[in-house]
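Deliverable D2.4 — example input (structure tokens):
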């Protein structure tokens, strides 16, 4: 492991802390643009190899790294391969121009996505969400000119809903009600829309999101309430295997510490998956920096960038 490679890990660490509640795509584009700029490689394949080495080192260095990193890195690597210039100096110039455009898009996402969400939010609405998501916070806090009643499910076992509730109570005049996850169904009949975030969006439009998202979306569907998911398109991700149900998530799953209060028998086991899989059919719209998109458009967006899908066992 070279000192030169380690400096990219430290740069990633520093930028990630600054962008803690923003888009990790900003961090990915900034770090890997520096990798490309400082590379001594004379070929595209050499650049891709360096990219892969740094990406693996970053993943190994941060066990809790969000899966957004995989999605943004996948798009960045595709951009390396798709830049068409035979002369290396012209290639670098063209590539960096495109990277700067994408960096500007990622930076503006926290402003453009709320702009696209606002037409769906009307004064007096009751909105349901869960846990904590910076884009959901931005979308709701930006509408200080009108008022909502917001149900926030606590988001057990990590219970980040309290963080969102406190932020909204501090910065807005919306009516905030924190509810236990078990009350989602009971509160759904008075809800107008469900507004959620996600970790990543798989290429069939399904969401890999904090556990409990599937429950909320399914109950919304039963009650005929629309579900809108706010996310930037840098979270669109093509997985290399078939995913038919949550058991197929493999290395896309993480564990959380979960142990209820009180005494319990030593033979009792506790469910501790961090994410669940919300089928695309339960999500009416993805609201991205490009505007509202149906979940069926994710495959098209990824195909434009990555080409047609292949699998490990093809």
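Example output (designed residues):
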């Amino acid at each position: 492991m070279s000192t030169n490679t380690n400096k990219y890990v430290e740069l990633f660490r520093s930028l990630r802390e600054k962008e803690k509640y923003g888009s990790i795509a900003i961090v990915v584009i900034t770090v890997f643009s520096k990798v490309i700029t400082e590379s001594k490689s004379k070929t595209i394949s050499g650049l891709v190899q360096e990219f892969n080495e740094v990406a693996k080192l970053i993943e190994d260095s941060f066990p809790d790294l969000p899966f957004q990193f995989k999605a943004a890195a996948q798009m960045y690597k595709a951009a390396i391969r798709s830049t068409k210039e035979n002369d290396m100096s012209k290639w670098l110039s063209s590539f960096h121009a495109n990277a700067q455009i994408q960096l500007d898009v990622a930076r503006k996402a926290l402003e453009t996505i709320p702009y696209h969400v606002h037409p769906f939010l009307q004064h007096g609405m009751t909105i349901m969400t869960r846990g904590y998501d910076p884009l959901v916070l931005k979308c709701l806090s930006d509408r200080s000119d009108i008022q909502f009643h917001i149900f926030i499910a606590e988001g057990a076992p990590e219970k980040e809903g309290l963080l969102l509730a406190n932020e909204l109570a501090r910065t807005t005049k919306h009516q905030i009600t924190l509810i236990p996850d078990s009350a989602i169904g009971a509160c759904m009949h008075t809800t107008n829309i469900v507004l959620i975030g996600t970790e990543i969006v798989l290429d069939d439009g399904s969401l890999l999101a904090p556990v409990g998202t599937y429950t909320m979306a399914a109950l919304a569907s039963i009650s005929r309430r629309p579900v809108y998911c706010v996310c930037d398109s840098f979270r669109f991700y093509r997985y290399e295997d078939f995913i038919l149900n949550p058991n197929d998530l493999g290395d896309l799953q993480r564990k959380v510490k979960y142990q209820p209060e009180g005494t319990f028998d030593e033979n009792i086991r506790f469910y501790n998956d961090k994410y669940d899989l919300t089928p695309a059919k339960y999500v009416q719209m993805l609201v991205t920096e490009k505007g509202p998109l149906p979940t069926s458009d994710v495959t098209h967006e990824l195909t434009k960038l990555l080409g047609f899908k292949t699998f490990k066992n093809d």
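The mean pLDDT is 87.
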